[in-house]
Amino acid sequence: MAEGGARDEALRRAVAEGLGRRPPRLDPKLLYDERGSRLFEAICAQPEYYIPELEMGLLEEFAAPLAELVGPGSTLVELGSGASRKVRLLLEALRPSAYLGIDISCRFLEASVARLAADYPWLRCEAACRDYSAPFAVEPPGEGRRVAFFPGSSIGNFEPGAARALLQRLRALAGADGGLLIGVDLPKDAATLHRAYNDAAGYTAAFNRNLLRRLRDELGAGVDPDGFAHLAYYNPAAGRVEMHLLSRREQAIELDGRRFRLSAGESIHTESSYKYTLGAFRRLAREAGWRPRRVWTDAREWFSVHYLEADTSRA
Ligand code: AVI
């Protein structure tokens, strides 16, 4: 089977499995086709979605002490496409000798890594098209200390057990003297979180409902995206913002001859965004073999950037 066909099959199976669950649930990875990635970029430019600006501010403010901790000649391994202003700021501050970008979206990744290579001729740049939410193999270029960079609080989109497993994989990738620079969103008042995931311009709603368009256009599913409303709210007991697609009426999604029924008011859970206190995140990181070294937060304590080092006492 061609690669695209195999990918479609895997997508079909994942969607059928998720819609068949009670309550129905789809993997948040499915939100990121090309249109979804563009909508996410638009979310990042909305005033209510505070994460990108706060994280960029912290990296700017603390670039010098971070560079001192990391030291010269490192290899920076970014989980993500290399398209952000954040990684450019880090490259200029840390002056690593090599950069590796890892992302599932191959075309996007290759284009952004090619731009980095053109703009930083002194840097050895490579791209590895991988799904880092599952075990993956890569051989980072360069000989220096490996520092993984995982911005944007994307760790919050993993269930805690899967987040721990990913942190363990990054620990193995970074090696004995490696580091991890990771952005983690902090718990805060429900109204601020509600606004951040329900922006007035409607980009988050479009991002969420794009998943249904994807099922319709890519998989030929019988589904009416207008039959669903965007729903996002803070669930304080679970420590996470939940995003759902709320069925406006009784209906069914048809896929490959199967009918997945939804009653009015029933919802499909499409994403969780966990918010970790500083202590809770440090605990999770320690369990995954990391030793917390420094953490920076903004004045309101809305967002945190942790720098962790490999804990060799437990290797
Ligand atoms: C990518 N990730 C960290 C975002 C978040 O905040 O969970 C995705 C997102 N979903 C809705 N808005 C933004």
Description:
- The protein is α/β, with parallel strands linked by helices and 315 residues long.
- The chain has two domains: 3-31 and 191-274, no CATH class; 51-188 and 277-314, Vaccinia Virus protein VP39 (Rossmann fold, 3-Layer(aba) Sandwich), CATH 3.40.50.
- The chain has helices at residues 3-20, 34-44, 51-61, 63-70, 85-94, 106-119, 160-174, 190-196, 203-219, 278-287; strands spanning 75-79, 98-103, 124-129, 146-150, 179-185, 228-235, 240-247, 251-255, 258-262, 267-274, 290-297, 303-310.
- The protein has a seven-stranded mixed beta sheet with strand order 3-2-1-4-5-12-11, with helices on both faces. A three-stranded antiparallel beta sheet has the order 6-7-10. Strands 8-9 form a two-stranded antiparallel sheet.
- Helix 2 runs antiparallel to helix 9 and helix 3 (51-61) runs parallel beside helix 5 (85-94).
- The chain is globular and about 60 Å long.
- The termini are far apart.
- It binds N,N-dimethyl-L-histidine.
- N,N-dimethyl-L-histidine (AVI) is lined by residues 43, 152-154, 156-157, 197, 204, 243, 271, 273.
- N,N-dimethyl-L-histidine is lined by residues 43, 152-154, 156-157, 197, 204, 243, 271, 273.
- Pfam families: Methyltransf_33.
- It comes from Halorhodospira neutriphila.
- This is L-histidine N(Alpha)-methyltransferase.
